[in-house]
Design brief:
Layout: H1 2-52, E1 57-60, E2 66-69, H2 71-77, H3 81-84, H4 98-108, E3 117-122, E4 128-139, E5 146-155, H5 157-182, E6 196-197, E7 203-204, H6 206-212, H7 224-241
Antiparallel strand pairs: 1-2, 1-5, 3-4, 4-5, 6-7
């Protein structure tokens, strides 16, 4: 009887262990399902955030091949994601800036981040847009191996055009001001013949001096007083001839 009792107790203990393990397994399965659900929701959220962001976003791997290319980047380049995914990233840069752009790209694979880097983008129609970039490096689980880089851009083409036009306008104003300064101050002028003396001591006709120090051009005519005096002299000369 004692042996039978021990056997029953042993079976009961084993059943308890099995029941506990089944419960733990179900709880673990429930946690896994919940974790998968949360992971899927997070992935979908990030996917939508990347795809529908207003800013151009791109991802490339250590082989410098494009792995992500959002819709804003499609609008920026005029190219679809299907056209560029898997391609070398150098297809996005104009030939005359390719070396400089690729130098920045390669640095991201060493862990360097961009804060504000200006890199031009070549569109499908061969026009070029000026874009200001920032980036981040993505590491593997070990925290050491680089698996990708992600960059976000801002199209500043119109702003650059405005800045260039403003710079040109400033230069024009500076040139105009310099011309004004040329004719400022005291001018030594002859009290009799009205010639002007330059800085080197040479004397010039008024028209010649002003023309050489500004953009002024002269046209000649007679004022009423001079015309009256001149024609009076001509009239007197004609009378004397007769």
């Amino acid at each position: 009887m004692k042996n039978e009792d021990k056997t029953k107790e042993k079976l009961i203990d084993e059943l308890k262990v099995i029941r506990r393990r089944i419960t733990e397994s179900k709880e673990s399965e429930t946690r896994c399902i919940q974790a998968e659900k949360e992971l899927r929701e997070t992935r979908d959220y990030l996917e939508n955030l990347l795809n529908y962001a207003n800013a151009p976003i791109i991802v490339w791997n250590p082989e410098l091949r494009i792995t992500r290319f959002n819709r804003a980047f499609e609008r920026l380049t005029g190219k679809s994601a299907d056209e560029v995914l898997g391609s070398q990233i150098d297809i996005l840069f104009p030939e005359d800036r390719l070396k400089e752009a690729m130098a920045h790209i390669r640095l991201t694979m060493t862990g360097e981040r961009w804060e504000t880097v200006e890199i031009p983008i070549l569109r499908k129609d061969r026009t070029v847009r000026t874009v200001l970039w920032n980036s981040a490096t993505i590491y593997a689980a070990d925290g050491a191996a680089v698996v990708a880089a992600i960059a976000q851009g801002q199209d500043i083409t119109e702003r650059k055009h405005v800045e260039e036009e403003r710079s040109k306008l400033i230069l024009k104003l500076q040139d105009a001001l310099a011309e004004v300064h040329k004719l400022s101050g005291l001018l030594p002028i002859c009290a009799n013949c009205k010639k002007i003396r330059d800085d080197k001591g040479y004397w010039h006709q008024v028209e010649e001096y002003i023309r050489s120090h500004s953009e002024v051009e002269f046209s000649h005519s007679l004022c009423p007083d001079c015309a009256e005096e001149l024609y009076k002299e001509l009239s007197e000369n004609d009378s004397n001839d007769k």
